[in-house]
Amino acid sequence: MGKPPRISSIDLRQEPEAALRSRAPTPRGPRQPLLPFDAMPERVEPCLALLAARPPNGPAWVFEVKWDGYRLAIHVEAKGIRILTRGGHDWTHRFPAIVEAAQTLNVSTLILDGEAVVLDDQGRSDFGALQQALGGRGGKRHASEAILYAFDLLYLDGMDLRRMTLSERRHLLEGVLDGQTGAVRLSKEIGADGETFLKAACEHGLEGMIAKHRDRPYRSGRPGDWLKIKCIQSESFLVVGYEPSTKVRGAIASLLLAASAGDGLVYVGSVGTGFKAHEAVALKKQLDAIKTDIPAVVVKGKNLVFVRPALVAEVEFRAWTREGQLRHASFKGLRDAADCVEFFRFNPTPGVS
Predict the structure, then answer these.
(1) Burial letters 173-197, b for 16+ CB under 10 A, else e
(2) Are the C-beta atoms of 238 and 266 separated by less than 8 Å?
(3) What is the H or E stretch that residue 278 is in?
(4) Which of 6, 18, 103, 332 to pair with 56, CA 20 to 30 A apart?
(5) How is 198-231 classified by DSSP, letter by letter?
(6) How many CB atoms lie within 10 A of CB 1?
(7) Strand 61-65 to 234-244 pairing
(8) Picking from 127-131, 181-185, 313-317, which range would have the lowest pLDDT averaged per residue?
(9) pLDDT digits (tens, 9 = 90+) for 226-240
(10) What is the pLDDT of residues 266-293, one digit of tens each?
(11) How far apart are CA 142 and CA 95, in angstroms?
(12) Does the predicted TM-score (pTM) go above 0.85?
């Protein structure tokens, strides 16, 4: 039997020959996830959509349905499931069906960004039905009929995806939610130009549409990467007081509204329609609990009652007056305080910054 060939020893103390030298490390791409893993954030401040009058044009933009519900982040962690609201409140216990559906996903860790909704018999999101399912403002009920339409994926199996483009994140999201038809579903992109989609959305009674730039990373706040275009203008405003009803005892006649403007607030008018008699009574009870002698904004009028700006009203309206007041406003419901809109973002009134 022959002897094995002799391998000459290498003196590791000497400079190796060129053929044995290791290559220089390749710089890590800015969107490449850190390895072996990225720490999972406790909470991600959401990316918010700016209000726009018309859909943007060009191949860089993709479109989705604008769902009318509660913005939620679904955290799948080793210790279990967490559901956080836009303002960071833990509402895990309020969406049992979404928790159960998230547990079936074939992932170890994950953060989904989406909207919890209740659908009507025609498949449209119904914000009033969702509020009723939760027991109203401050209610303690569980919305077992609510489903989550997920539209972004921020973290997956140890990788922070926020540096990736929307197209890259969507590709991974579609893989995670492929075939899911339960309480966690994919919010699909619509293959149409913006104007055509907006027209169809309005004809079918939807609230509007969302436009997203496909090449942008996930950035918290309102950087302009996402736009919202509504069929009927509606926004969320701080309630700063009310006018008592002279017709119904123990009820309100109208709500006084304000929006953020820099470090302060600006009065944007009142809303006196859209709530039923029992809602007007319930609102007065809520507001009387936070009455104040110091108004948050300057409002002219008699018999007005001022409150601390702690509640937020969702209001539909036709347009803005030249003085920066809401025109033909109608009350839609109460929302989370984090939803208050910034006045200067969408009101072009001269002199308002």
Answers:
(1) beebbeeeeebbebbebbeeebeeb
(2) no
(3) helix 277-288
(4) 332
(5) HHHHHHTT--EEEEEETT----SB--SSEEEEES
(6) 3
(7) unpaired
(8) 127-131
(9) 999 988 778 889 999
(10) 999 999 999 888 999 999 999 999 999 9
(11) 6
(12) no
Residues of the chain with CATH 3.30.470.30: 68-186
CA distance 283 to 28: 55
Return the structure tokens found at 259.
């929006």
Distance, CA of 325 to CA of 268 (rounded, Å) = 5
Q: How far, in Å, are 45, 115, 161, 170 from residue 41 at the CA level?
A: 10, 20, 11, 20
Listed range (158-162, 187-191, 273-277, 320-324) with the worst mean pLDDT:
320-324
CA dist., res. 333 & res. 197, Å (int): 27
Integer angstrom CA distances of residue 245 from 49, 199, 248, 253, 277: 36, 39, 6, 4, 11
Which structure tokens are listed for 277? Answer: 């008699």
Measured distance CA(346)–CA(140) in Å, rounded: 34
Q: Mean of the pLDDT values across residues 143-149? A: 90
User: In Å, how far are 130, 141, 235 from 276, measured between CA atoms?
Assistant: 17, 22, 20
What superfamily would CATH give domain 234-345? Nucleic acid-binding proteins (2.40.50.140)
- Burial of residue 76 (number of CB atoms within 10 Å: 0-12, 13-18, 19+): buried
User: What is the second-level CATH architecture of the domain 68-186?
Assistant: 2-Layer Sandwich (3.30)
CATH entry, 47-67+188-231, from 3.90.190.20, 3.30.1490.70, 3.30.450.20, 3.40.830.10: 3.30.1490.70
Q: 264 is written with which tokens? A: 């302060």
DSSP 134-198: TTSTT-----TT-EEEEEEEEEETTEE-TTS-HHHHHHHHHHHTTT--SSEEE-PPB-S-HHHHH
pLDDT tens column, 84-130: 999 999 999 999 999 999 999 999 999 999 999 999 888 889 888 88
Kindly report, residue by residue over 292-315, the tens digit of the pLDDT. 999 999 998 889 999 999 899 999
pLDDT of the residue at 51: 87
Percent of the chain whose predicted confidence (pLDDT) is above 70: 83
Question: What residues are labeled active site?
Answer: 66
